[in-house]
């Protein structure tokens, strides 16, 4: 079963977040058993050549690749999909109209505006346009006050497959002094988002710092969760090893 279908059926999915252009790491991560591997083209340190190399590596490792694109733009979304992503996560969506624009960018004519040129993606998805439309997941991020206030309308957007909480920006939007700090209304905002997605029969995801946090979110109403990132976990593992080394000496 393809990733998009599993997402639409609200299966509980666990993903891994990657912010560096490291194809060898991508290949190893793709084979670990995560339901998807997300390459971050918004805040990550990945240019298009690095992204394409990682896309090939994800396939070699037997994984499913999705991409967080830099912006809600027809060209950015189309290039991410043409490289072979099975879905896109679109940041900073404030309204149902913006969600509809993301859907439009993910689908071929006559229902969408995606330009046809799947030179690599056709090896995995398609090349029939209707088959490709069905196999691609369109997910938008809820991380602003506008997106939160419009969540019910966003979740009713035709063709949209999921919403995805960016907890850092959402917390800042609600008045937190920094990401991770407690802020009034954050828990209620998450409840509102998961409830709206459930009512619409739509997938609902969130970014998490760790596996235990992801498990907690999946138990609380989210249907998919991304764990940490390659860079943060590398740093944490290296720090722990250094501390252990010095403690034993």
Sheet with the most strands: spatial strand order: 1-2-3-4-5-6-7-8
Tell me the major beta sheet. Answer: 8 strands, parallel, barrel
Query: Percent of residues in helical segments?
Result: 40-55%
Separation of termini? 51 Å
Give average pLDDT, whole number.
96
Q: Could you tell me the strand content as a percent range? A: 15-25%
Give me the number of helical elements. 12
**Which runs of at least 5 residues are low in confidence (pLDDT < 50)?**
none
From the helix content, strand content and strand pairing, which structural class follows?
alpha/beta
Extended strand count: 8
Q: Please compute the radius of gyration using only Cα atoms.
A: 18 Å
| SSE pattern | HEHEHEHEHHEHHEHHEHEH
Described by the principal axes of the CA atoms, the overall outline is globular
How is the secondary structure organized here?
Elements: H1 3-8, E1 13-18, H2 23-30, E2 36-40, H3 48-60, E3 65-68, H4 74-82, E4 87-90, H5 96-106, H6 129-135, E5 137-142, H7 145-149, H8 151-155, E6 162-165, H9 167-173, H10 186-200, E7 203-208, H11 211-219, E8 224-227, H12 230-248
Parallel strand pairs: 1-2, 1-8, 2-3, 3-4, 4-5, 5-6, 6-7, 7-8
């Amino acid at each position: 079963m393809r990733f998009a279908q599993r997402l639409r059926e609200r299966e509980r999915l666990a993903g891994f977040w990657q912010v560096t252009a490291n194809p060898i790491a991508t290949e190893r991560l793709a084979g670990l058993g995560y339901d998807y591997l997300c390459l971050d083209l918004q805040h990550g340190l990945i240019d298009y050549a690095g992204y394409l190399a990682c896309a090939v590596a994800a396939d070699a490792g037997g994984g499913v690749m999705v991409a967080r694109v830099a912006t809600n733009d027809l060209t950015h979304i189309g290039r991410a999909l043409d490289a072979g992503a099975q879905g896109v996560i679109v940041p900073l969506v404030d309204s149902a109209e913006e969600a509809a624009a993301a859907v439009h960018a993910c689908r071929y004519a006559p229902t969408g505006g995606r330009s046809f040129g799947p030179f690599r993606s056709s090896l995995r998805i398609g090349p029939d346009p209707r088959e490709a439309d069905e196999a691609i997941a369109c997910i938008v991020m809820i991380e602003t006050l506008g997106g939160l206030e419009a969540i019910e309308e966003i979740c009713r957007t035709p063709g949209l497959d999921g919403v995805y909480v960016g907890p850092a920006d959402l917390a800042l939007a609600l008045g937190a002094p920094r990401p991770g700090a407690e802020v009034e209304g954050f828990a209620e905002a998450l409840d509102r988002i998961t409830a709206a997605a459930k009512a619409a029969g739509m997938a609902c995801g969130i970014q998490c710092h760790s596996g235990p946090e992801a498990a907690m979110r999946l138990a609380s109403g989210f249907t998919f969760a991304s764990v940490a990132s390659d860079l943060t976990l590398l740093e944490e593992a290296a720090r722990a090893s250094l501390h252990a080394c010095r403690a034993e000496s």
